[in-house]
């Protein structure tokens, strides 16, 4: 199994695995009921992503077979609604843009390219491709939360606010790159964040709750996890802070909803939770080791920190 | 490629050396074959037939077998094979159906030896017997296989596959007389070379053409077949019926398959279409290749391991006119890229984690710790043993649930639902919210609310009335109690350190309070020593003077040591600036806080939290009235809100913003406010807290936010009985006729043809009406809730028989939520545009 994602409401869980399958479970009330077993990929499925529910129940999956499939639930049954075959190599990561932008999917592939699929209505998808985004391959993509430049107040009501779309990607060139959509709709590399000494495995842009600063977590083959922050509004200066150096590959980083806790999973099959303490240091507040251990105590402590 | 170092492999005396390298051919290759000395390779194609020597650094052309002025079609090779016993003997299969043998030992330039012109169509494959020097087998597009004895002019025997075309023939290594052939119709046949009349065995191996097969070199009766269906299957031929033991799913049709020497479970494949790469698979890992060679720019047509006992050198020829030697260690390994774990933060603070089961189950013997209240594994996916994964990889998915009240988000939901944001006087709202927060164990928040109440609620009335009483109570019994509460409060967090302090506190009990929060103490300290009957003015003056001393008083309790008590440090970063002006109120506020640190321990009965706050309010009110401009606290409160927002508690920020309204609004820039609002609304909606979310939208002052309610909503209406959607044609928009909905809402009359439907309710106050041909007309109420600023409501109706008298209300973007069906009394709350809404049934 390569990925598991909860939907927006936390009621359904999608998983994907090497056996080409994408499965959706209903996980309400602590149960788990298999709702759908989606077949369509011809290789291991690396990642799944839920779209915002305002567009319906839509799930995207990407696979070693170089395809990205977008699934949709219609009248209770899941069906393939679109298949994107624009990559020359395994597609490693998919991520939906914040719903404010419309239905946009970013896909990062081992062929080094990132493609952006935009739904244009009537079952049509427009494809934009960033070639050579990362040499050797792109491993992860993550969208920045929708932040509006300037106040919404100035916008004439009814008109769509002028969002600046941004996302981060991590690749085999050890870099994290930030991409920004130009006014002409083209994507341009805005920043190159350099700190890792091996493949970047995952990047996660923190949900922006309450504060206008931007934060990105990244993890790498080199065992290090960095927290990148950008305080100035122009978004040009990012400073890394080493969260921790693990002994093994770090595969995933994931932010909690309120962006104050970061979950990190590593090659040693451990999940750790991290929280920024008052003095700006990141401290491990728990150690979820394969379902066992004395997590509760330390989490409780973390809670006290909050208070 | 140049940087690749050389590799030497010892093979019983002889050694293979080389590096990853390639050379350009004059023409596309169709097939390659290696000489048994592992030092030469023959490349054959439509217009190429050459022998290359494999040297350490490069390929060197040794011999061009394509001689003569006008090349005959006999030289257009579909396949080539080098005898594994005789270094001088080669055979080629020509596209015109001729089988040619070549003797390199011939002295003349033309090495052609024998010509067999028996096949009528292209010969796809030739194969020498592994141990017999003179036996050659061919398979042709004409559907026949022929066996030649090279000492004779004609074929010895002909085998009819009874089928269109033969794609591959391979002598068994295990059985002297046996060979396998594969066909375009998906069949594999097994023949005894002595019995040309009929095949020994036949089975359907693939869906579509079987392009290739290869016997396992280690004599185990395993046959690998590859087909257009993108699969490689491994068959055990020793059993009575061929049994599929492995199945590898590749991503392109399989044109060639070759077992890897010395690696029992490895085989190499290449495709004839689309995919140019060569893959090496571990048959036990059927989805991800173990290695991948990506050098070729066009379809790879021939692959051969350089030496039958060396697993690291692979040769390949391609349509891109190159010949390559690949070193296994230079291969890219897709497995490396594969992510073996999944991790996802759930909405309620739970964490899903998927990982290899082998690693997880290693832990299963361990018992959960006694205090571990998480439910460690919520489900485990066990793989069917029939699946090819067995023993290698299977995954377990664990979901870690946070302990209630810690990392979990239940506090968020509870708080959101119970907070009062409007409709009452400020003081009451603050009190109410403080109470809610306290009941949920969120002391800091509770304190903040109380503090806000103190700061902003106007003096007099309720608080004034209770003033005297409270003061009296506070001074007599309140304060001593507080001290003890504080001790209790801190004990779990501070541990031994606290106890240490406590001993100090024995001599002077108020030091303990200092520990709890460095700034909070100030007044507490004073009160304890001076008693609460000290006049407020005096208190103030005292504090002013003591500002610095207070810090000196207990320096070891500097902030870093006590991260738990973030409030004093972060919430009031402006302290010193304020101190420059009138310092007193700052401390008053702190003072207001302190009783709540204590009061929050609700079980520590006798001192009711409200009382304790009142006792201090009395003091603060006096100050408020006499000295301070009403907006004095604004900067402070704004900072506090920012602090909460930064801590991820945007709920607090927004709630306070709403409750305080104009009092602070102007001090926080619109953009930030808007951001908080949107964040909070989004969170609320994720938790399906529609009512709260709508209330927040309604109460928000930001135009951008409140216009969220103005957009239109799309509804889908299904019959709840038969679950069929209402027909879009059944609904029509008409003028209002004052239906009896809770809000005088719209009127709908059901009409169905049971076909997929779409009911769109666009603008406000538009009423809907429709006809219902199948049954009595019933009213459908469309709630005002779909319309801006209307009370919540629901839809019900009937189509067909009486059992059909319920309707589901479904917005555009979600399925029914059966869990939230309720009676009309439990009104669902206003709906937000573009969101998935709860479904209500009303029979």
TrEMBL record, chain A:
UniProt-recorded Gene Ontology molecular function terms: structural molecule activity
InterPro entries documented for this protein: Sec13/Seh1_fam (IPR037363), WD40/YVTN_repeat-like_dom_sf (IPR015943), WD40_repeat_dom_sf (IPR036322), WD40_rpt (IPR001680)
Domain of life: Eukaryota
Keywords: Lysosome, mRNA transport, Nuclear pore complex, Nucleus, Protein transport, Repeat, Translocation, Transport, WD repeat
Keyword Transport in record: yes
WD-type repeats, residues: 38-81, 193-228
Keyword Protein transport carried by entry: yes
Pfam families: WD40
Main location class: membrane
GO cellular component: COPII vesicle coat; lysosomal membrane; nuclear pore outer ring
One GO-annotated biological process of the protein: positive regulation of TOR signaling
Location of this chain's protein in the cell: Lysosome membrane; Nucleus, Nuclear pore complex
Similarity comment text for this entry: Belongs to the WD repeat SEC13 family.
Subunit and partners: At the nuclear pore: component of the Y-shaped Nup107-160 subcomplex of the nuclear pore complex (NPC). The Nup107-160 subcomplex includes NUP160, NUP133, NUP107, NUP98, NUP85, NUP43, NUP37, SEH1 and SEC13. At the COPII coat complex: interacts with SEC31A and SEC31B. Interacts with SEC16A. Interacts with SEC16B. Component of the GATOR2 subcomplex, composed of MIOS, SEC13, SEH1L, WDR24 and WDR59. The GATOR2 complex interacts with CASTOR1 and CASTOR2; the interaction is negatively regulated by arginine.
Role, per record: Functions as a component of the nuclear pore complex (NPC) and the COPII coat. At the endoplasmic reticulum, SEC13 is involved in the biogenesis of COPII-coated vesicles. Required for the exit of adipsin (CFD/ADN), an adipocyte-secreted protein from the endoplasmic reticulum. As a component of the GATOR2 complex, functions as an activator of the amino acid-sensing branch of the mTORC1 signaling pathway. The GATOR2 complex indirectly activates mTORC1 through the inhibition of the GATOR1 subcomplex. GATOR2 probably acts as an E3 ubiquitin-protein ligase toward GATOR1. In the presence of abundant amino acids, the GATOR2 complex mediates ubiquitination of the NPRL2 core component of the GATOR1 complex, leading to GATOR1 inactivation. In the absence of amino acids, GATOR2 is inhibited, activating the GATOR1 complex.
Protein name (database record): Protein SEC13 homolog
Organism of provenance: Neovison vison
Gene, per the UniProt record: SEC13
UniProtKB/TrEMBL annotation, chain B:
One GO cellular component, as annotated: cytosol
This enzyme's EC code(s): 2.3.2.27
Subcellular location per the Swiss-Prot or TrEMBL entry: Lysosome membrane
Keyword Nucleus attributed: no
Name recorded for this polypeptide: GATOR2 complex protein WDR24
Annotated stretches, region: Disordered: 496-536, 582-604
Subcellular location, principal: membrane
Family: Belongs to the WD repeat WDR24 family.
Reaction(s) catalysed by this chain's protein: S-ubiquitinyl-[E2 ubiquitin-conjugating enzyme]-L-cysteine + [acceptor protein]-L-lysine = [E2 ubiquitin-conjugating enzyme]-L-cysteine + N(6)-ubiquitinyl-[acceptor protein]-L-lysine
One Pfam entry name: WD40
Organism name: Neovison vison (American mink)
Polar residues bias locations: 514-523
Annotated InterPro entries: WD40/YVTN_repeat-like_dom_sf (IPR015943), WD40_repeat_CS (IPR019775), WD40_repeat_dom_sf (IPR036322), WD40_rpt (IPR001680), WDR24 (IPR037590)
WD repeat extents: 116-158, 203-245
Role summary: Catalytic component of the GATOR2 complex, a multiprotein complex that acts as an activator of the amino acid-sensing branch of the mTORC1 signaling pathway. The GATOR2 complex indirectly activates mTORC1 through the inhibition of the GATOR1 subcomplex. GATOR2 probably acts as an E3 ubiquitin-protein ligase toward GATOR1. In the presence of abundant amino acids, the GATOR2 complex mediates ubiquitination of the NPRL2 core component of the GATOR1 complex, leading to GATOR1 inactivation. In the absence of amino acids, GATOR2 is inhibited, activating the GATOR1 complex.
MF annotations from Gene Ontology: ubiquitin protein ligase activity; zinc ion binding
